[in-house]
Amino acid sequence: MMSAMVQGNPGWVLDTCSHIDRGYSPCIRWRENHKSHVKCRFKRRCFQVIKSYYSENTSAAVDAGNEDVLQTCKSSKKRKRKHHELNQGEIDSRVFHEKIRSIILEGTKSLVECAQPLGYLNGETNMEKEPLPSQECNLAALCEMAKELPLMDDEVQEHGVQLLVSEDGCVSHVDLFSRVTESRADWATVVTLMGEEYVIPPRTAFLLSDFTRIQPLIHYGTRFDLIVMDPPWENKSVKRSRRYSSLPSSQLKQLPLPLLASPNCLVVTWVTNRPSHVRFVCDELFPHWGVEVVAKWFWVKVTTSGQFVFPLDSPHKKPYEMLVLGRYRYSADTSASPSESSGVPVEDHRLIVSVPSALHSQKPFLSEVLKPYIGSEAKCLELFARNLQPGWTSWGNEVLKFQHVSFFNLTPADEKAEAEDDRTDKQKEAQGFDSPGKTGPPDQRPSRVNQ
Predict the structure, then answer these.
(1) Which domains does the chain have, with CATH numbers?
(2) Three-state helix/strand/coil letters over 330-393
(3) CA–CA dist 92, 448 (Å, integer)
(4) Residue 343 has pLDDT above 90, yes or no
(5) pLDDT tens for residues 39-60?
(6) What's the 3-state SS for 100-122?
(7) Is 36 helix (H, G, I), strand (E, B) or coil?
(8) What are 351-397's pLDDT values in tens digits?
(9) What pTM does this model have?
(10) Which residues is 269 bridged to in the sheet?
(11) Partners of 302 in the beta sheet?
């Protein structure tokens, strides 16, 4: 099944869980250099958001990825908020919301109505009873400890790429913190790293490091046509929960994006709804890198019944998040040469509608919706990643977080049946949205894409 259920003028409806599963068929599990075939599926429980949430207490639980997000909301009395004058940030937020309100409301309504006759967003009926996997992750702490180790010299780093699985098929001993690791296999691989099992998608590369140890990614020597990043923005919720370390906006300028981007690279940044963060990206960060803002898109979060997860006009939590898209414009001081094309034009105010994950900070994958603007053979990079994607390079201090085996259901596989399913999926892709030759903007009429 393809993850883009509907595409049209307002945008897309995505099935994130189906997208994840597509990258793990076939899948081989390695244990003590012995391999077995397994069927690998991401846990559906993570995407069973069946109710809209209105109370402040429940809204906080949803944002934290709390299991309560999957249970029926109990009514509770709200505390009356003392009247106070709006500060400038609140005024800016209200003004911006009023500008885009009709775009969000009408576009979402149109896309959901197109998806429901196809059997999607009609409400979840087969609830999985298993608990949500634990979101505890010690990868960032390990990265902090790895900073005590000496860096390799430049000559070693330039040849420092390592294979996850060696040429003879055995799992290699890998240094995850100071070298880019590649899986060149055409299948997913379940391997043991640092004493834990992780599911690695095919044809992927990653570097597990923090902001100060990003040099191996630069020495990797690849210029990317698409760079997506989800920075750990500073906000009160993160400080209270201590779920992860935030990064001051000013430090983002130190990211060596010009050394990673190809000419006309499409740069996509997830931004909170805080006006100061949006202004920083558009007026400071992108210009600092030589990136021109070309569009602003919105991820609209809905329940399995197609309702907003929060009231559209809620003063506390909005049911949408923003993506700022830009093009890296060639600069004479880079080693790359300008391309003849300035890139396929990107439409403004497009919507990505999907059921959000109950896991904190797990964003929908953007490869299908962005493919028309970058081409099917584009080299793609995600910064501040918490998961891997087939064919992508990923970097972050929690880059393997959602690859942990606890987020997946693994069962013994019927190899023949799995191969047949894989052939069927590829035939569907060849006829639909994933056609390699389809590199222009999507059609403007809402339509089903998984024919």
Answers:
(1) 4-69+89-448 (3.40.50.150)
(2) CCCCCCCCCCCCCCCCCCCCCEEEECCCCCCCCCCCCHHHHHHHHCCCCCEEEECCCCCCCCEE
(3) 37
(4) no
(5) 999 998 888 888 887 644 443 3
(6) HHHHHHHHHHHHHHHHHHHCCCC
(7) strand
(8) 999 999 988 878 999 998 999 999 888 999 999 999 999 999 999 99
(9) 0.83
(10) 229, 324
(11) 308
